[in-house]
Design brief:
Order of helices and strands: EHEHEHHHEHEEHEEEEHEHEEHH
Number of domains: 3
CATH class of the largest domain: Alpha Beta
CATH topology of the largest domain: D-amino Acid Aminotransferase, Chain A, domain 1
Shape: globular
CATH architecture of the largest domain: 2-Layer Sandwich
Strand content: 15-25%
Number of strands: 13
Radius of gyration: 20 Å
Helix content: 25-40%
Distance between the termini: 11 Å
């Protein structure tokens, strides 16, 4: 089986903690994978004796000619895209146009999931619990004008970013001054509207799902233990928490997998996650973020159809962490995703 591994590769020498000319953290390429990660995925897929895997860098002048002539049996898609609010959907749409099978969710799901408001609107329509929210680009408005009846704290995030881009400690706001400051920051730095969400004060979890239809399964639930963050950090899983405080040389003890849950709460989380997975038409795999409200009920925060897949256990990547707890090593995890994609197309991979 010829597999094309479609990926955006971070420029060489650029770390997640790159600093721009203004001395600010530059998260431009935060969503892209390093070459080491992409090669680890390729090597994992190639452990299957019937798989021949080739990396295809997901930039138009490289990928488009190769996709048109190399005749891959299936493309393993981890491409994040380059620009635009629907960037994750661009290459899947091209693959569908070319008639090439591929792993993972389709263009509608990928475009919707990257838009936090459209995601929450879709889930609310399907009766899935989400925090009350509103989008705005109005730098002069108060919280009461934007989200009547809401009280501080609230969380203010960029509308269409992934990998915690733009979600900073300052995103947890406590007054109108901070509220307006964040809307200005997001408009200036990300050139987009903000989503304003009521703060959910309960425990936070991230949940990996593998498979399709009735065979889709929830892997062991990961809890993000926010009390393990540095003292000055706000109680949200921010960009700083993900990429600055938690590093391989000094990892935070921030994750519990499997999470310590009552059987009732575990079932509630699994149920809302699978309902979300189906409502958004996720395919093959996704990681879904959940937070408990003041009554202890699960609410969906975000949906990640292209989950992070760092191979090094020291780097606290949650989908591989859940897979390891379920008894799947990195190679087995990646092959399970490939098999799920193949099965959708009625292709056989032993």
């Amino acid at each position: 089986m010829r597999v094309g591994l479609l990926a955006n590769i971070k420029p060489e020498g650029l770390s997640l903690l790159n600093v721009n000319a203004d001395g600010q953290m530059d998260d431009t390429y935060a969503e892209w994978d390093t070459r080491d990660v992409v090669e680890a995925v390729r090597d994992a897929l190639a452990t299957h004796p019937d798989v021949e895997c080739e990396i295809v860098e997901a930039v138009p002048d490289i990928a488009l000619p190769r996709l048109m002539v190399r005749k891959y049996d299936i493309v393993f898609n981890i491409a994040e895209g380059m620009r635009g609010a629907a960037r994750e959907a661009q290459f899947p749409a091209v693959l569908e146009m070319l008639g090439i099978p591929y792993t993972g969710s389709g263009p509608w799901t990928l475009a919707t999931a990257l838009d936090k408001a459209r995601t929450k609107e879709t889930l609310a329509y399907h009766g899935v619990a989400v925090a009350r929210f509103k989008t705005t680009a109005d730098i002069g408005a108060s919280l009461e004008q934007i989200l009547p009846g809401a009280t501080y704290p609230v969380v203010v995030k960029p509308l269409s970013e992934g990998s915690s881009k733009g979600v900073k400690n300052s995103s947890f706001v406590n007054n109108d001054e901070e509220f307006r400051r964040e809307i200005v920051r997001i408009r200036n730095d990300y050139h987009q509207a903000s989503i304003v969400e009521e703060y959910l004060p309960g425990r936070e979890f991230t949940v990996a799902v593998l498979g399709n239809g009735k065979t889709a399964r929830v892997l062991p639930i990961v809890e993000i233990v926010l009390t393990e963050l540095p003292e000055h950090a706000r109680s949200i899983y921010s960009y700083e928490a993900k990429w600055e405080y938690d590093v391989p040389d000094s990892p935070l003890n921030i994750f519990r997998c499997p999470a310590e849950l009552t059987s009732e709460l575990q079932k509630e989380i699994e149920n809302i996650v699978l309902r979300t997975y189906r409502a958004l038409e996720c395919r093959d795999w996704s990681r879904i973020d959940v937070r408990l409200d003041s009554a202890g009920k699960p609410n969906i925060i975000e949906v990640n159809p292209l989950p992070g897949i760092l191979p090094n256990p020291e780097e606290n990547s949650c989908f591989p962490k859940a897979a390891r707890t379920a008894g799947l090593d990195y190679n087995q995890m990646m092959l399970a995703v490939l098999r799920a994609g193949c099965e959708r197309y009625r292709m056989t991979l032993a």
